[in-house]
Amino acid sequence: MSHETSTRRSFVEAAGAAGVAASSGLAGCTAFGGAGGAADTITVAATVPETGRLSSVGTDLLHGYRLGAQRMQGSDAIEQDVELVVEDDESDPKEVRSQLQQIISNNDVDVVWGSFSSPLVMAGSAVAEQRGLPFLAVATCYMEPLRSGSKEWTYTPFPKTRDVVRATRQILQLVPEGERPSRVGIWEPNSGWGSEMATAWEESLTEAGYEVVQRSKFASGTKDFSTLISRAASANVEILLSNPQPPDGITAMTQLSNRDYMPSLVEFVRAADPESWWSALGETGNYVTMSPGWVHGVTGNGNEAMLEAWRSEYGDDSDNEVPRVMVGAGYNLTQTVEQALSAAESVESGAIRDALDSATFHTVVGVFGFDEHGMPKPGQLDAPSGQWKDGRQELIYPRTENASELRYPIEE
């Protein structure tokens, strides 16, 4: 595949349906080695939750997208400009659909990037599938919609439920055998992914010799976790696992801290991802683990370059010395897109899809190819997991040279 070496071009970030100028002032460009003869610009449509229940992670995801676009400008495979047309979806699936429809109607869109959380991602996927556009998203572990649906254009370069469960078992292995807990409580959000995660945890941990002594459901927006806490205390739950949205996890942890009972290990997948966890809870949120798909401390595949770019762009004080977890997840998506477009014979949708189906990707979350459902192939990706320690999310799995020791139990 041949191409001419490109010069640095201007990166354009535009408002979508609202039509309000939103230029970021970032430099960047795009278009890829196989894209000869294509238009001057590749246009990316995206929504992120800048307001609403999930707003605490929307900005981080967008930072990852922007850093990735900046990186693209230095690629020898880049020949065209990229225009990122991004709108606030207000943490609402209806807004995702509405905003993407308007962006696509008003622009010659080539690729769609997803929002945060399974409901928002699936809403975006539906629009892209209808339009026949390649759709890539992170921040969703939910496997069932990808397995059961007839999705032809959706790809999720992100650890899935099966990977998170494997990571949970590996985290528990970090506890010395003589001190290792065995009694598991699962708090199950009343959602499709809540059920999928709870069942996967229960089956995998039971097979490994743990005893699941509690499995209790709760609804999104629950304000009172006292019943679940009482049941966990009565069952002597030592390992508490759940995958709540951030506001629900913060509420649950606040109420746990006000009781005499605290499990020895608490893993709140997704809830403990954003900075709002620490800003809301402070030391009450200490030592909770999470599995957000990327944590500072993972090495190789562009991690060092991403960290350097982050510090150059945002690291002007100690609080921003390292990027938050969803920055890395979003950056990983842009690497996947760049490598797929570089391998494609053109920027036509079908060519991009063929490249996504056949290529192997090297990104900050690992090395993987996609299976027939647009998910990373089984066993190829670890689910990088961290633990809150005095305001920082520190990598505890996988055990790279930068990983820190698991703090166990939570209260000593």
**Largest sheet, order of strands side by side?**
1-3-2-4-5-6
Total number of helical segments? 12
Task: State the distance separating the first and last CA atoms.
Answer: 59 Å
Strand content: 15-25%
Structural class comes to alpha/beta
Average pLDDT reading? 89
Number of strands: 15
- The CATH homologous superfamily of the largest domain corresponds to Response regulator
The global form is: globular
The percent of residues in helical segments reads 25-40%
SSE pattern: EEHEHEHEHEHEHEHEHEHEHHHEEEE
Radius of gyration: 21 Å
Contiguous runs where pLDDT drops below 50 for at least 5 residues: 1-12, 15-38
CATH architecture annotation of the largest domain = 3-Layer(aba) Sandwich
Provide the CATH top-level class of the largest domain.
Alpha Beta
CATH T-level topology of the largest domain = Rossmann fold
Biggest pleated sheet: 6 strands, parallel
Structural features, described:
- With 412 residues, the protein is of the alpha/beta class.
- The protein folds into two domains: 221 residues, Rossmann fold, CATH 3.40.50; 149 residues, Response regulator (Rossmann fold).
- 36% of the residues lie in helices and 17% in strands.
- Strands 1-3-2-4-5-6 form a six-stranded parallel β-sheet, sandwiched between helices. A four-stranded parallel β-sheet has the order 8-7-9-10, sandwiched between helices. Strands 11-14-15 form a three-stranded antiparallel β-sheet.
- α1 runs parallel beside α11, α2 packs parallel to α3 and α11 packs across α12.
Write the topology of this structure.
Layout: E1 12-15, E2 41-48, H1 55-72, E3 81-88, H2 93-106, E4 111-113, H3 118-131, E5 135-136, H4 144-148, E6 154-155, H5 161-173, E7 183-189, H6 192-207, E8 211-218, H7 226-234, E9 239-242, H8 246-257, E10 265-268, H9 276-281, E11 289-290, H10 303-313, H11 325-343, H12 349-358, E12 361-363, E13 366-368, E14 385-389, E15 392-397
Helix pairs in contact: 1-11, 2-3, 5-6, 11-12
